[in-house]
Please model this.
Amino acid sequence: MNKYKKLNKSTQKLIRTICVIAVLYVVMTIMDGTGNLSSLMKGLLVPVCAYSLVAVGLNLCVGYLGELSLGHAGFMCVGAFSSAFFSRAFQDVIPDVPRFILALLIGTVVAALFGFLIAIPVLRLSGDYLAIVTLAFGEIIKNVINVMYVGMDSKGIHFSIKDQLSLGMEPDGKMLINGPQGITGTPRQSTFFIAVLLLILALVVVHNFVRSRTGRAVMAIRDNQIAAETVGLPVTKYKLVAFTLSAAIAGVGGVLYAHNINSLTATTNNFGYNMSIMILVYVVLGGIGNFSGSVIAAVVLTMLPELLRGLSTYRMLIYSIVLIVLMLFNWAPGILKWRDEHGLTTAAIVGRFKKKKEVR
Amino acid sequence: MALLEVTNLGISFGGLRAVDEFNLSIEKGELYGLIGPNGAGKTTVFNMLTGIYKPTDGTIFLDKDDITGKKTADINKAGVARTFQNIRLFGDQSVLDNVKIGLHNSYDYGTATGIFRLPKYFATEKQMDKKALELLSVFGLDSMADVLASNLPYGKQRELEIARALATNPKLLLLDEPAAGMNPNETRDLMNTIALIRKEFGVTILLIEHDMKLVSGICEKLTVLNFGRVLAQGETSAVLNDPEVIKAYLGE
Amino acid sequence: MGFLTYLINGLSLGSVYALIALGYTMVYGIAKMLNFAHGDVIMIGAYMCFMCMSNSGMPAIVSIVIAIVCCTALGMVIEKIAYKPLRKATNLAVLITAIGVSYFLQNMALMIFGSNPVSFTSVISWEGISLAGGNLKIAGNTIVTIITCILIMIALVWFVKNTKPGQAMRAVSEDRDAATLMGINVNATISLTFAIGSGLAAIAGALLCSSYPSLTPYTGSMPGIKAFTAAVFGGIGSIPGALIGGLLLGVIEILARAYISSQLADAIVFAVLIIVLLVKPTGILGKQIKEKV
Model:
């Protein structure tokens, strides 16, 4: 306990978050084991972790690099498809465990590579222009995947952007990517345990990153680019590093997502701008620059529509109203002032709880 | 050859000639003042010296290296650091981290070392902390190391900016109106600190000031700029008695 | 003749994009926010028009006027409830709220109209003209869309240049604080901007669905994104920029669909946007703003 107190505040927070995630994991596993978890909830466990990962990656970009990306679903998409492609192609060649590890690495690296290549032109822009260009890249990625036909037979790999027939495959061949039908038959290897493990790993990585020499430089560039240049920081290099890392983490989310479902397709809702926007909502509601917050927001907001399922048609409507009200409650200057006057700020509420504890 | 040798420097914005035929030579160890009325082009000269603006013509040599039109970050690596008239700190980071960012290029470990917290990370960070605290103590800022830079009082922010500039280990330090917005007492303290850091760090200083009295107290040499051109240049006392300078400052 | 037909169809689609882009660009110029819900106002406008025409049997022109009135009111109400309280908050907060409003409108429509597409009857009954001895047919929809767009554009430029409220809009977009000091009612000006933008969205909705008659609660979403792209393309904040951006985008999309690949058309549109922004980082007619050191 003393050792814990000696650590700085951010490290303490990281440890608390990891503990909470671990506890949640145990609770969920027990509930699952005793049959108390609805199949809907069960189906959400891995996707929630995947969304959380993408949100953590995006938060690095928005909160620390200070640039708004509306294309992170694209990196998730790249991670998902590259890893699923690999898993499918080598399904009968490599044993399960090493193949999944390799798929994970491939998904991450390919997403990072895309992040890097896209960042080179994109980071010359800033603000809303950067946002729209990332959105455009995300849409391009989704679109291109939808016209890809890749098959494999005894003669090797066939590729076409027209249709399945023009691949001219031998009868023994199998489809790897089938245009809009995407990839089917990916081994479902993303267990809840692996998902939680990867999420914790990502939280540690970003935590350490922002508190390293590179992380400080990234934040310096965010705070004041001109000053950062005058103290000799290579601005472009560090922007690239941060964006690439951010994309890589989103890619990990993609790998998890892909290996949790049988048929992987790229639609507007799972990899288009809708998803990018949803992830951005997690980041903003969880707190910009607050990684644990991103995870909490991702978990709560993914579960919320499901918990509201009893209200069926109204649930998404309620979700949208909750979102608007939350934003107004947390950000509107007038409402913040009112909260301040009536002792309803977050700090005041937390303070009251702490006092109660002390009295006890 | 002098430490800083500026020849025929000039810049135009559109049709406007902001600075023209600017010459300057500063010897190593000098404390040099650049003065002139508002809008004379003083800060523009600084921006060209640090590569924020690319000069339209002329050359800048630092310690025999041609740094004309190089990138800002490279000019800093060559040995020029500066402060800003409108303070530019890394406001969301601590006082200590601001200085550690200044130390960035003097210490090295890679991104991966930082992410995986290899032993080199801890060793280097420790050295950086020590060095940064040393620098902060010169300004009496070491007790506020954990405060957010944006929460410092105004005068302290100016000092932190100087500390951050010094952390990059410059040969030439450019101070843009370091006493702006300070009361007379604070200004006197600051001038003493500037004299002190020149001695302690062996750094050559070029500073912009508005207040002639203040400059005359500490600068050995002066250049007076008016409408983008050099009006007078030389030993402080000679420049201040120049009838042209008096005319520019007091009007006719 | 094929090329000419595609070109004209592209201009028609581009005109719709331009009308939508106007809403984005005016709101961005004046309130400095990305109104993500704008695309969904189009959808609401189209449904309104559909209800009046197909369900109540009103004439097309009356239906459109009703849709315009409803959307104008809707735009002003949205601004008042969701965006105005956040005027001094960060851009990101307003963006997320706009996303919330977008979800709200979509789900509201989903509840009322259901998710099945309805078949929109064109508001234009004119058959169109046939040129070059019947080789070149231009549909009435196409002609009316292009002409409407051009007329609105001219009216809008005139309005902004020559009327008091228009001048107030320009002043607020230049410098909001200075405009306040000059006695301009900023709140009323922003409200007016939303009103105009949303009214135009209703027209855009009716025209869009006249050419592409399948209407669902998600109809506005993709054209919204593309029109936003068009606004950025032309230089966000600039009214002529929205026209140029919209038309170019429409033409590129239709030509790409015809000559390259219909599935890759969107990708090509976005790729062109990226290239334009990299060559000219503030769009075709955008102004460069440099930070003062």
